[in-house]
Amino acid sequence: MSEIIYLSKVRLSFPKLLEAHASQEGAAKKFGADLIMAPSDTGFATFMGEVGKMAQEKWKDNGQAVLLMVQNDRKLRCYGSGQEKINKKTFKPYSGYEGMVYVSASSNEDRPPQIIRLDGTAVDPSNTMERLAVARKLYDGCYVNAAVRPWPQDNQYGRAVRCELVAVQFCCEGEPFGEGDPDVSGMFGAVAGAAPAAGPLGSGVPMPPVPFPAFFGAPHP
């Protein structure tokens, strides 16, 4: 099995961390996200080195041939140049991708990625309320620290290089991608007889943290 790669202060894009989604009708539901970084990022170099090592171990003497095939077909790999991520409406790269590289990582519906608190501890997956609260802060465009693991696909669907999203932690704020949701609250008034909005709910007693590798510490400044 390939090594887990730690990516530091990378841009989060297309996050699906609150619930699993299917990429198309009939496909398995998955959690996932794109992780965007500069081509010179040391984490990306480490990731690509692990991909090469993994391919050699999996396909032996055919490893280079398989990687060449994968390189020539974006659907067969989990990484690439940001120039490849084209918005079908504008015919230009999506916001944040131009001049960058990316890793697309996902995890199965029954094995969601670990969500890491700011102090480096993992949210207990059974604590649904806390998991949702922390995951909501991981918005499209923010910076995160992430743990990913590339893996070789070799089955009835063919050979490919995929990537598991193991864990993700908020790092720092970033300019949100897209236009965001419009604020239309000014178009509405109070409903007659409606009670005032309730204040925030109490936080309750948190669940004990799940142990996680030490490379997740406090977020980078």
Overall description:
By secondary structure, the chain is α+β, with helices and mostly antiparallel strands. The protein has a single domain, classed as Nucleic acid-binding proteins (OB fold (Dihydrolipoamide Acetyltransferase, E2P), Beta Barrel). The chain has three helices and seven strands, in the order ββααβββαββ. It has helices spanning 42-59, 63-71, 128-135; strands spanning 5-22, 29-37, 79-81, 101-108, 114-116, 143-155, 158-172. Helix 1 packs across helix 2. 29% of the residues are buried.
Layout of SSEs?
Elements: E1 5-22, E2 29-37, H1 42-59, H2 63-71, E3 79-81, E4 101-108, E5 114-116, H3 128-135, E6 143-155, E7 158-172
Parallel strand pairs: 5-7
Antiparallel strand pairs: 1-2, 1-6, 2-4, 3-4, 6-7
Keywords:
221 residues; alpha+beta; OB fold (Dihydrolipoamide Acetyltransferase, E2P); 7-stranded mixed sheet; 3 helices; 7 strands; globular
